[in-house]
Design goal:
CATH superfamily of one domain: Nucleoplasmin core domain
CATH class of one domain: Mainly Beta
CATH topology of one domain: Jelly Rolls
Order of helices and strands: HEEEEEEEE
Strand content: over 45%
Strand order of the largest sheet: 1-8-3-6
Amino acid sequence: MQTSHFQLSLIALLAVALGASVSSSEAIGYPTASAISASSNPIWNVGGTPTSVETITAPSDQDIVITDIHFGSINAGWLKMQFELLGEYVAGYAWDGTTDRYKVTMSSGIRIPAGETMTVRFDHTYSLSSTQYTLSGYYGRP
């Protein structure tokens, strides 16, 4: 069987085309900007001795995501914490009986959209002056 120049050229052309189709190409990915924060320190926290109502306002250009909650008292009795955003309760926690500090760690968190204000309501059997709280999380891009 004889092979013509046309067949050899066609085989060579197909081999080059196959090689080009399976070779590595430049990677195409997501934007290089961070999805968590535009600032140099994305960590956010607030805490102390609460009044019955505390407000948290997210900056106009970043969301706040609350991922951890700590709340406790030196007096036994029930503790309650409720989170309200845009007129609706989005989360609530209640504990009863001990003087321990309670910890809540969330995998996704409670989001406060950029420019919005969240109201946090606190209550305690005896007095809020004997309680302490910490809310922590991070800033994120809206």
